[in-house]
Design a protein that fits this description.
The complex is a heterodimer of chains A (61) and B (477). Chain A contains two helices and no strands. By secondary structure, chain A is mostly helical. In chain B, a hairpin with a 2-residue loop joins strand 10 and strand 11. The chains are: A mainly alpha (61), B alpha/beta (477).
């Protein structure tokens, strides 16, 4: 995934009606790029067949 | 015994002596208030000290006990409570400017539980703003680690760790989303348990992440931890996710017998090349494993390959869930948030739904892998962090994307069992030294969902055969 830049962060923020402060943009960019990069690199076998549910009490608990 | 020395008794010892009328709860509360007056200016562990209320409660406890009425196992014992946990008529700030005037009408379920067991609420403890993972964000100032004032006391229950370790309360409550009970317990040389998700009601607790939050005790001994957990555990119809199952007598389960118990050591967290564990931490955990073997436990290494991604997945989940709780704060009061909190909330709002979904898928896979391991082992053990308490960087901001990635990776040490949703406990397993300072090391012990008794008993067996819990931080007079 390409790195998000400052303008990308502004556009994303605008899309959720958030008036992001200039002083926050670099740190938001670092934080968001870290999360996106890290999770993109994780691709365990079988993940596509898993339901994305935060199931807490499963059978056998 | 000098009255000032009462603070050095464990909560269990205090409760026993109070019950047997050897000491008065009034003397005990006064001793703690004196201690707070001397020590807290150095640590900043308390946001609110409830001196008057605690003394009134102590006099009531004294009257009750004198007349033969015993309210419960913590009768007369002073306890501190993290400031995201509601207390009727008492400010509950979540260490934020935004909530600095919030006074709840009702006690949180866990506070009711403490009061029913006779505990005296001594005060509201500092924390990171809205229970974020950064130690510098509290609107009431940074809390210091009593072992080394320059280092983090562990987040987010910073005050719970610092106050308990420095004898400013007999036991405390924290809230653990991705390690906020276990981290402060580890950094401050204490015992902290994250109970199973659904074991303890979260009614009346300002949320951080709905699918990960738990309330747990931070205490100086395993007995104290068991005693405190017993006071707050149990089904509560006001929290739909509490499970209606019996609460064992945790204290009675502390036999210290671990013979034949199967313990799996998660090898990824003991390999410096995989998760960056440092040598003092690794040695502390391996020494603890050897001790458990000498006590009759069967210990073997096991692999949980997906455990390494637990930090990334759990941090993404908590980041999104946290920022979704009060989106209006970011829009209406951004300047009332610490810079780092505002950045974290903003980043959480901008995470794509596909990424959040993938993190939830990973959670399911990580959890399955851990539960499969629990079919072979009674207990899983590993470090609680790659290194002891680190020096706090008081400058706001995120130095780089790489630093943010490292924080996500380090989060796997604690995020793993947050996602499994069973109990996980941190206990001191030695000390490393840095110059003149001793820094606590910690072992993490985790169990099957709702099997807190085995986790506590293994910790108890370990504690009874070591002296780490008898060590004290340097005096701060």
């Amino acid at each position: 995934m390409p790195e998000l830049n400052d303008d990308d962060i502004r556009v994303l923020a605008k899309a959720v009606n958030l008036d992001i402060q200039d002083s926050d943009i670099t740190d938001v960019k670092h934080s968001l790029n870290a999360m996106l990069d890290a999770i993109e690199s994780i691709d365990p076998e079988g993940i596509n067949g898993i339901e994305p549910l935060p199931v807490i009490f499963q059978t056998g608990d | 015994m000098n009255n000032q020395d009462l603070v050095f008794l464990s909560a269990t010892e205090l409760a026993n002596k109070i019950r047997e009328k050897q000491i008065s709860p009034v003397e005990v509360v006064k001793a703690y208030l004196d201690r707070i007056a001397v020590v807290d200016p150095k640590l900043n562990a308390y946001i609110t000290v409830l001196a008057d209320e605690a003394l009134v409660a102590a006099h009531e406890a004294e009257t009750d006990i004198t007349s033969g009425l015993n309210k419960g196992p913590l009768h007369g014992v002073p306890v501190g409570v993290k400031d995201q946990i509601h207390t009727e008529g008492i400010r509950t700030s979540s260490a934020s400017r935004i909530r600095s005037d919030f006074v709840p009408d009702v006690d949180a379920a866990v506070v009711s539980g403490l009061r029913k067991s006779g505990a005296i609420i001594l005060g509201k403890l500092n924390m990171t703003e809205f229970a974020m993972g950064d130690p510098i964000t509290s609107a009431f100032g940074v809390t210091r680690n009593p072992w080394d004032l320059s280092r983090s006391p562990g987040t987010s229950s910073t005050g719970s760790g610092a106050a308990t370790a420095s004898f400013m309360c007999a036991s405390s409550l924290g809230e653990d989303t991705g390690g906020s009970v276990r981290g402060p317990a580890a950094n401050c040389g204490l015992v902290g348990i994250r109970p199973s998700w659904g074991r303890v009601s979260r009614y009346g607790v300002d949320g951080a992440s709905w699918s990960l939050d738990t309330i747990g005790p931070i205490s100086r001994t395993v007995e104290d931890c068991a005693l405190t957990l017993g006071a707050i555990a149990g089904y509560d119809r006001r929290d739909q996710y509490t499970k209606d199952v019996p609460v064992p007598d945790y204290g009675a389960a502390l036999t210290g017998d671990v013979s034949g118990l199967k313990v799996g050591l998660i090898k990824e967290f003991l390999d410096p090349d995989v998760m960056g564990v440092t040598e003092p931490v690794r040695q502390g955990v391996l020494d603890a494993a050897r001790l458990l073997v000498s006590l009759g436990a069967e210990v073997e290494e096991t692999s949980l390959p997906l455990a390494q991604v637990a930090g990334v997945a759990s941090r993404i989940i908590s980041s999104v869930e946290r920022s979704s709780l009060h989106p209006e704060w970011l829009r209406n009061r951004p300047d009332d948030l610490h810079h780092n909190t505002r950045v974290a909330f903003t980043a959480g709002e901008l995470v794509p739904s596909s990424v959040y979904y993938k993190a939830q898928k990973l959670r399911t896979m990580v959890r399955r892998q851990a539960l499969e391991a629990f079919e072979r082992f009674d207990i899983l053990a590993m470090p609680i962090a790659s290194e002891p308490a680190t020096i706090m960087d008081l400058r706001p901001g995120i130095p780089s994307k790489q630093a943010a990635v490292r924080a996500l990776t380090e989060g796997s040490y604690r995020g793993l069992f947050s996602m499994v949703s069973g109990p996980a406990l941190s206990i001191c397993c030695g000390f490393s030294t840095d110059g003149a300072r001793k820094l606590p090391l910690a072992l993490q012990i985790a169990g099957r969902p709702f099997d807190e008794t085995t986790v506590l008993n293994v910790a108890y067996a370990y504690e009874q055969n070591t002296n780490w819990h008898l060590e004290r931080p340097p005096e701060l007079n």
